[in-house]
Amino acid sequence: MPTQDIRKQVALALEAVNNKKAEDVALLQLPGDSSTFTDYFLICSGSNPRQVQAIADEVDERLSKDMGVEPNAREGYNTAEWILLDYVDFVVHIFNAQRRAYYDLERLWKSAHKLTAQELLQPHAAAAAVAPVEAAPVVRKRAKKVAAKKAPSVRAAAKQSARGAGARTATSKTAVKKTAGKAAKKTVRKTAKKTPVAKKAVAKKKVAAKKKSAAKKPGSKRK
User: Fold this and answer.
1) Which of 52, 67, 60, 61 is nearest to 20 (CA)?
2) Which of 194, 60, 39, 10 is nearest to 127 (CA)?
3) Residue 96: phi, psi to the nearest 5?
4) Which residues pair with 43 in a beta bridge?
5) For residues 13-39, b (16+ Cβ closer than 10 Å) or e, as one string?
6) What radius of gyration, in Å, describes the C-alpha atoms of the chain?
7) pLDDT tens-digit series, residues 83-127
8) Residue 95 falls within a domain, yes or no?
9) Is residue 132 part of a domain?
């Protein structure tokens, strides 16, 4: 598909999410080394499940009616926590606030360039901002992008990142518990030595040790 047509589709999707009052809208142009994955991420949030679904419906309907384009895959519509619309050359992510903060795709893809609608429709200015001009342009084929299975990869990477953060937290808690346990045992031992019963036991041991030592000396008499 011509690059200009892709930009028009992304611009239409951007207009659709804004029409439904989506929150925290972000348009990311992915770096060149991920070009076989997809070109753009359109990320936004809805305040409740109904709005999340309404945003997805608006994007789907506008692209279908105005440009004759259907998503290659739809995911997460029923739960309405993270709806993903995969259009091969770009992917639309519609989150609720909790899921967006949890997966944090902007941080996961921090190497991507954040675009405005104006930069999207002015490709030469956007290309200059992202990277220097390459000596030989790389020809990309649509079939390779479809085979890349990009949508599941995005979800898998985000979920793996979140699980890693959880594991680090659990390890930290375990280390704190072990340290606290050692400190508590040490305190109990010190306290036990200071009690009257403990002092008497120590005194008896000392007396017994002296008697035993005296009995071993040459010339000592048993009474």
Assistant:
1) 52
2) 39
3) -90, 170
4) 26, 93
5) bbebbeebebeeebbbbbeeeeeebbb
6) 34
7) 999 999 999 999 999 999 999 999 999 889 998 878 887 756 545
8) yes
9) yes
> Whose CA is closest to 121, among 27, 222, 49, 22?
27
CB 29 within 8 A of CB 40: yes
Q: What is the CATH number of the domain that holds 100?
A: 3.30.460.10
- Tens of pLDDT, residue by residue over 167-208, are 555 555 555 556 656 665 565 565 555 556 656 666 777 777
CA nearest 110: which of 29, 39, 10, 44? 29
Q: Smallest Cα–Cα separation from 5: which of 97, 187, 98, 142?
A: 142
Confidence of residue 31 (pLDDT cuts 50, 70, 90): confident
Q: What is the mean pLDDT of residues 37-45?
A: 93
Q: Please tell me the total count of domains within the chain.
A: 1
DSSP annotation of 138 = P
Kindly give the pairing relationship between strand 40-46 and strand 113-115. Answer: unpaired
Sheet arrangement for strand 73-75: 73-75, 82-86, 90-96, 40-46, 23-29, 113-115
State yes or no: pLDDT of 27 exceeds 80. Answer: yes
**Cα 84 to Cα 91: distance, rounded to the nearest angstrom:** 7
Domain that holds residue 50: 3-168
> Which DSSP symbol is given to 33?
G
